[in-house]
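Hi everyone, sorry if this is the wrong subforum. Our group has a chain we'd like a structural model of before ordering constructs, and none of us has done structure prediction before. Sequence below.
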Amino acid sequence: MMTSTRQYRPLQWWEIRELEQNGCVCSDWGRVHVCDGTDLTKIRNVRFAGDIRIGADVTIENVGLLEMETEALCGIGTEVCVLDETGSRSVRIFPGLTAQLAMLVARDPAWAEGPVKESFDEHINNYPLDRAIGDGAVIRNCGLLFNVAVGREVRIEGASSLRNGAVINNAAHGRALARIGAGVDADGFIIEDGVVDSAAIIRHCYIGQGAVIEKGFTAHDSLVFSNCSLENGEACALFAGPYTVSMHKSSLLIGCQTSFMNAGSGTNQSNHMYKLGPVHWGLLERGVKTSSGSYLMLGAKIGAFSLLMGQHKTHPDSSQFPFSYLFGDDRGATVVVPGATVVTEEV
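Answer:
Right subforum, don't worry. Here is the predicted structure as tokens:
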């Protein structure tokens, strides 16, 4: 597979012979097309099936299965059940999705299902996706790539299993950001100028510009926007606005919206109430920091640039008290020290 700007032609008989001598097999060589710049000497031990077009500027090496269905959506339109997990606030993902637009859809489902729904559907259903592997891409030492569109200069090395997704590079030539690394397992995703690496597992996720998910992090039904850094822990139904950071094991970000947030080790949230299911969600306004071992029962709303410490089990709303210390007492109630983070003590 390659981009459609080149002129492709059927194989000549001597080219077929060369490929067979290189260990390649195909039940119908007439469905394999190449361009004039294709170097057949570098194509070895490949089993071809279906309609194939091979360009000149792609490296594919040691890949178990690489397959693209004709009508594959490649992650576009995947519903991400963000915030409350039930699907009532789902966001359909596509290349170019912004945090602002996604917030409007998730926070105001009635608006998204109103007069703008037809425009959304038309944009997503008719998105001009190039179901191909772009110029300069490298795919090496991978297990499975099924219905995955790979943009120009994207590197995918050592991935375990990739299904129904798109990896897109929007940067200038030679400055590509999009990359997937070793052991990654992903399904129903769009990675746009972001990085997923080192055995991360993602399901139904959008990963935005400069975002990095690595070191075994697990995320599902989450939106991860620009310059977030997520390692070791877990995310579920997370709306991670720009510069959300979670670096520690045993940290769970669930059913909440964040931005410029830093999660301490063992940070945990809960969005379940008895018999009601995961219908509750929370808002951690810009710049919230959680301490090690902090717990927050959702729904809750935490004011901007506040520090959250201890156990908070009474669904606190401190949005009117930004720059505060929030302590959980022995009963799980919240004690607020307003404005505490504004003052910097000198030692």
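For your construct planning: The radius of gyration is 23 Å. The first strand starts at residue 9 and ends at 10.
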